[in-house]
Request: fold
Amino acid sequence: MVGLENTEKKMPSDLSGGMKKRVGIARLLAYRPKILLYDEPTTGLDPITAEQINELIVKTQEELEGTSVVVTHDIHSALYVADRIALLENGQISVISDAKTFLTIDNPTITFLKERYKEQPKRGNKNV
Reply:
């Protein structure tokens, strides 16, 4: 399910960053939890691998019919995987919004993000 076919004989030190992230998700899936917690799941990954991890998060959530909580500084990833987004500023949640309208909120941090990310990422063939 996580795309690690033919890697069972590799030692942990032989795994790439993306493979290590997938192993973490595979360990999580073994328990079939209803709540999945991810802490910076795409940090340190190249853009292609990060996108694959985002797709895996969405697929995992759908298959388990669970709730995912993803903590990330990666706005692209947040917009891709989220149904709802909470923005943490100065130790407080300043905004909670659905992902579709998050970038339309009048907030200096969101305005900054909007200027950097002109187009929202797409999940499959539909806009998030």
About this structure: The helical segments are 17-29, 47-64, 75-81, 108-116. The beta strands are 35-39, 67-71, 84-89, 92-98, 122-123, 126-127. The first helix runs from residue 17 to 29.
